[in-house]
From TrEMBL:
PANTHER family: HTH MERR-TYPE DOMAIN-CONTAINING PROTEIN, REDOX-CYCLING DRUG-SENSING TRANSCRIPTIONAL ACTIVATOR SOXR
Organism: Microbispora rosea
Keyword DNA-binding: yes
InterPro entries, A to Z: DNA-bd_dom_put_sf, MerR-type_HTH_dom, MerR_fam
Presence of keyword DNA-binding: yes
Protein name: DNA-binding transcriptional regulator, MerR family
UniProt xrefs under Pfam families: MerR_1
Length: 252
């Protein structure tokens, strides 16, 4: 049979047949005296097998080796790996649909709402204090963390921050935000700075503070510098001193 007939029999295009020849999946058949390829039943069977295996997700290199019988791995091993990969993709799709469902439940979703379900749940717990500029900045930083951090690191941090969502902790946070706002335009040497830094450090749950002490970047870290640049000089000094206290050092 001719290449078009072979392709039609296996349900593929003639371009696919030629590509399989080029990749070594389908050996080149003998040619007639007029130069046309002459295919037989075995070619059709091999092409059909190749199509079924590629539809399962095997790469052409894997298909070629499996059909040639000289694969370093058994077909079962390849299929088990493929099944595990599909399971991971399936879990990823489910997670994306959960995030979409959460967004669609909002009347007017915004780009900042497109966070993971666990982060979205945590941010909802902070709603009572989301009115201030500092609370909004905290939420933006958490949304950035949700994108940049590995899921297990993010979830571990959220668990350490969970005590900060109690009514008492939220009330303290609101007071701290108000005191920070009052320092806008103040001198970094203002007497209120050190007291507020101590209260800010004390506001952190002990386990969270211990974790931050091990991992907190220095004040010269680019991310820390960008964060401090958005604050007034006195407010930035509060954060620097609080960071030093949490890290176990003395505020400068």
């Amino acid at each position: 049979m001719r290449i078009g007939e072979l392709a039609a029999l296996a349900g593929v295009s003639t371009r696919t047949v030629r590509h399989y020849h080029h990749q070594g999946v389908l050996p080149e058949p003998p040619r007639r005296v007029n130069g046309y390829r002459e295919y037989g039943l075995r070619d059709a069977l091999r092409l059909a097998r190749a199509r079924r295996l590629t539809e399962l997700g095997l790469s052409l290199d894997e298909v070629r080796d499996v059909l040639a019988g000289d694969s370093a791995r058994e077909l079962r091993e390849i299929l088990l790996e493929l099944d595990a990969d599909l399971a991971r993709q399936e879990a990823g799709i489910r997670a994306r649909r959960e995030r979409l469902a959460a967004l669609l439940s909002e009347d007017s979703p915004s780009p900042d709402d497109a966070v993971s379900p666990r982060m979205a749940e945590f941010l909802r717990c902070l709603e009572p204090v989301r009115g201030s500029a500092f609370a909004a900045a905290d939420a933006e930083l958490l949304a950035l963390l949700d994108t940049a951090a590995e899921p297990e690191d993010r979830d571990r941090l959220l668990e350490l921050m969970r005590p900060m969502t109690t009514p008492e902790a939220l009330a303290r946070a609101e007071t701290l935000h108000r005191r920070l706002a009052e320092l806008d335009g103040a001198d970094p040497a203002d007497s209120r700075v050190a007291a507020l830094a101590a209260d800010l450090a004390a506001h952190l749950p002990p386990e969270l503070a211990a974790s931050l002490a091990r991992t907190m970047p220095g004040a010269d870290d680019p991310f820390a510098q960008a964060f401090l640049a958005d604050l007034s000089p006195a407010q930035a000094e509060v954060v620097r001193q609080a960071m030093a206290l949490v890290a176990g050092g003395e505020p400068s």
